[in-house]
Design brief:
The protein is 44% helix and 5% strand. With 592 residues, it is mainly alpha-helical. The strands form 4 sheets. It has a two-stranded antiparallel sheet. The termini are far apart.
C-alpha cells in the first residue's frame, strides 16, 4: 500500500487480507511514510515476534524521545526525508513502483540520503516503534557478503508484497527481518535485477492505477447502476460497470491482475455483449435471480448462492449484463424513487437543512443499507470518492400507484390516530418514569395534536402528500408532551394506611352491601318515628280544667229498673290538670 499522489484518501477503504490489514497512509507516525506503511507494520510484527521480550518498543516516549515535538518542529533531516519520499510518489518520478519491495526501497533510499540514522540517534528515537529498526540500516552495504546472499535466499522478493499478493505459505517462513535489515538495499536491488531479467514478474503499479479516467468512470457507473432490488443486482452493478468502463484492461495494463487488493479476480471476468445479454436464456436467468435473491433477506439464501452468485452457478456469467430497472413503490409525495438506490428523498423534520433518504413511511418492510466503503475485493469496487454515501433501500408492501400513495397516508392516520396517540403517551410516560402513567397535561396536548393532524388531512383533501405536514406536527407535539411529562405525575391526595388498589377492588362489594343495609335501617327508623309522631297528634285532648269532678265508670240513674245494679252516690275524684312539663309516665302515676 502506498500513499498515492492523486487520491490520498483512497486507502481508507482497502480490504483486509489474511492476517495483514491494509490501512490508509497516516500522518500520526513519526516518519511521514514509514509510520503509515502496512508493510512497515508487518515487518515490525515479525521483528517483535522473533525478538519476544528481548526488546520492548515504546509507542510514545522512550529514553527521551519526544515524537510529538518532532512532528510539530521537525528537524531539517526529517523534512528532507518527507520531501524525498513525496518526490518518488509524483507522477513524473523515475522510481518504479512495480518492483517488489518498491516501497521499502524508496524509504531506505530517502533515509540514507537524509542521514536520518544520526538524527534519530541524537533525538534518542531509534527504538521508537515507528522508527525501529531503520537505524540499523547500512547505507553502503556489501551485497556480495554472506549475510546479503543468505537474506536474498531466505527472504524472496515477493515476501515484500505478502500483504497484497497471494504467496506460498512457506515462502517467507525462514525470513528473519531483523537480521536482514542492515542489507535491505541489497535485497531491493536483487528484486530489480530479477524483474529486468524476466525472472520475476512486476507487481501492481498502484501509484499510476488511480490516474486516468477509467477508475473515475467506473465509480460514476457504479453509483448510477440499479442495485437495490436484490443481491443479484448488487453483484451485477459491479461486474457490469467493470466491463463497461474497461477496468479489466486497466488492471492488466498496470500489472495488478495478481494483486488481491487491486485485481481481486477482475482479470478473470467474462464480459458479455449486449446481444448475448438480450437472449432468452440471459433474461430468464436475470429475472429468476432477481426473485431468488430478494433484497428483503439480510443475506443471500442457499438457492440464490447456488443458482446465481457462486462462481459455479449456471447464471453467474450473466452478471456482466445490465442490472434491471425495478420500480415497485411510490414515494409519499407521489414521485417515483431513485433508480439506483430505490430510495425516496424526504425533507428533514429536525429543523436542519438537507434531505434524508429512505422508504415510504407506509411500507410494511423497510431496510436501508450502505453499500460504499468497508471491506471489498478489489478495494476500489465499492469505494466512494466524495463525502456522499451510496445507500440501498429495500422496501416492501408499499403503495404501488400514485393514487394509493396520496390516499393511503390520510386513510391510515384517520383510522389509527387515537390508538397511536395513546401508545405514544404510554411510551413517553414510561421513559420519563411516571408512576401513574400520562398526566393530564400530556393528555390535553395529545388531544390537540390529534385535532391539528385531522385538520391538516382535511385541508389537503387528497390533493397532495400529507405525510410531511403530519410529521412536522407530530414532531412538535412529541417534544411538548415529553416536556409535560417531565413535570411528573398529577397531584392526588394520599391517605395514610389506605389500601392498595387491588385490596380496594376486593373490598368494594362488601362496602356496597354494608352501605345499602345502613341506608335501609336508617330509612326504617325515620319512617317509624314519623308514623309515631303522626299517631299521637291524632288523639283528642279534653280540657277538664273547669270541672273539678270527674265521673269514672257508668253512673246509675235513679229510675233504673235493672235489679243487678247497685244504688248509691256517684264516685268522684279530683283530677289534676295536665301541665306542659308533665311526662307520660308522671301522668300515669297521677291517674293511679
Amino acid at each position: 500500500q502506498r500513499c498515492g499522489r492523486s487520491a490520498p484518501g483512497v486507502w481508507r477503504f482497502v480490504v483486509v487480507l489474511a492476517a495483514w490489514r491494509v490501512t490508509p497512509c497516516r500522518s500520526d507516525g513519526l516518519l511521514p511514510a514509514v509510520g503509515g506503511s502496512s508493510l512497515r507494520r508487518r515487518i515490525g510484527d515479525a521483528i517483535r515476534a522473533r525478538q519476544g521480550a528481548a526488546r520492548q518498543l515504546d509507542t510514545t516516549t522512550l529514553n527521551g524521545c519526544q515524537p510529538s515535538a518532532l512532528r510539530l518542529l521537525p528537524p531539517p533531516a526529517l523534512q528532507e526525508f518527507a520531501k524525498c519520499y513525496q518526490e518518488k510518489l509524483d507522477a513524473d518520478s523515475s522510481h518504479d513502483w512495480s518492483i517488489p519491495g518498491a516501497e521499502l526501497a524508496a524509504q531506505s533510499q530517502c533515509w540514507c540520503s537524509s542521514n536520518l540514522t544520526a538524527t534519530m540517534g541524537e533525538y534518542q528515537c531509534c527504538d521508537h516503534s515507528s522508527v525501529f529498526p531503520m537505524c540499523t540500516l547500512d547505507c553502503s552495504p556489501d551485497c556480495d557478503s554472506d549475510l546479503a546472499k543468505t537474506c536474498n535466499q531466505e527472504c524472496p522478493s515477493m515476501c515484500f508484497e505478502a500483504a497484497e499478493f497471494v504467496v506460498d505459505e512457506g515462502l517467507c517462513a525462514n525470513c528473519n527481518w531483523l537480521k536482514c535489515w542492515p542489507v535491505m538495499q541489497c535485497m531491493t536491488r536483487h528484486a530489480e535485477k530479477r524483474v529486468e531479467t524476466g525472472e520475476l514478474s512486476k507487481t501492481c503499479h498502484d501509484t499510476k492505477f488511480t490516474d486516468g479516467d477509467n477508475l473515475k468512470n467506473y465509480w460514476q457507473c457504479w453509483r448510477d447502476a440499479p442495485k437495490h432490488s436484490s443481491h443479484w443486482a448488487i453483484l451485477s452493478s459491479v461486474v457490469h460497470c467493470v466491463c463497461r468502463e474497461g477496468m479489466v484492461e486497466h488492471v492488466t495494463k498496470h500489472d495488478c491482475c495478481k494483486s488481491m487488493t487491486y485485481g481481486g479476480g477482475v482479470c478473470e471476468l467474462q464480459c458479455l455483449t449486449e446481444k448475448e445479454c438480450a437472449t432468452q436464456e440471459a433474461q430468464t436467468c436475470i429475472q429468476l435471480c432477481q426473485r431468488k435473491c430478494t433484497s428483503s433477506e439480510t443475506t443471500p439464501g442457499k438457492e440464490c448462492v447456488n443458482y446465481c452468485l457462486s462462481r459455479e452457478a449456471p447464471c453467474r456469467k450473466y452478471a456482466s449484463c445490465r442490472p434491471p430497472q425495478v420500480a415497485a413503490h411510490i414515494c409519499d409525495d407521489g414521485r417515483w424513487p431513485q433508480a439506483s438506490s430505490g430510495c425516496c428523498a424526504m425533507n428533514r423534520t429536525d429543523g436542519k437543512l438537507g434531505e434524508v433518504y429512505g422508504c415510504p413511511r407506509l411500507c410494511g418492510t423497510q431496510q436501508v443499507w450502505r453499500l460504499d466503503g468497508g471491506r471489498s475485493i478489489p478495494w476500489w469496487s465499492r469505494w466512494q470518492n466524495n463525502n456522499e454515501i451510496v445507500v440501498q433501500c429495500s422496501c416492501e408492501d408499499c403503495p404501488e400507484t400514485t393514487e394509493e400513495g396520496l390516499a393511503k397516508p390520510g386513510r391510515t392516520v384517520e383510522e389509527t390516530i387515537w390508538d397511536n396517540g395513546q401508545m405514544m403517551l404510554v411510551d413517553i410516560a414510561r421513559r420519563e418514569g411516571l408512576l401513574y402513567g400520562p398526566n393530564r397535561r400530556m393528555q390535553e396536548l395529545m388531544a390537540r395534536r390529534n385535532t391539528e393532524v385531522l385538520e391538516a388531512l382535511q385541508a389537503q383533501n387528497g390533493h397532495g402528500p400529507p405525510s410531511a405536514s403530519i410529521a412536522v406536527i407530530n414532531s412538535r407535539y412529541s417534544k411538548l408532551i415529553t416536556g409535560a411529562a417531565q413535570f411528573g405525575d398529577d397531584d392526588f391526595p394520599v391517605v395514610r394506611g389506605s389500601p392498595e388498589p387491588d385490596e380496594d377492588r376486593n373490598l368494594m362489594p362488601i362496602l356496597l352491601i354494608a352501605g345499602g343495609c345502613t341506608l335501609v335501617i336508617v330509612a326504617a327508623i325515620v319512617w317509624a318515628t314519623v308514623a309515631l309522631l303522626r299517631r299521637r297528634k291524632a288523639t283528642p285532648v279534653i280540657d277538664i280544667s273547669g270541672n273539678p269532678e270527674v265521673v269514672i265508670g257508668n253512673p246509675v240513674g235513679p229510675n233504673s229498673g235493672d235489679v243487678a245494679s247497685v244504688t248509691g252516690a256517684p264516685v268522684t275524684v279530683t283530677a289534676p290538670t295536665r301541665s306542659p312539663s308533665a311526662s307520660p309516665c308522671q301522668e300515669a302515676l297521677d291517674l293511679s
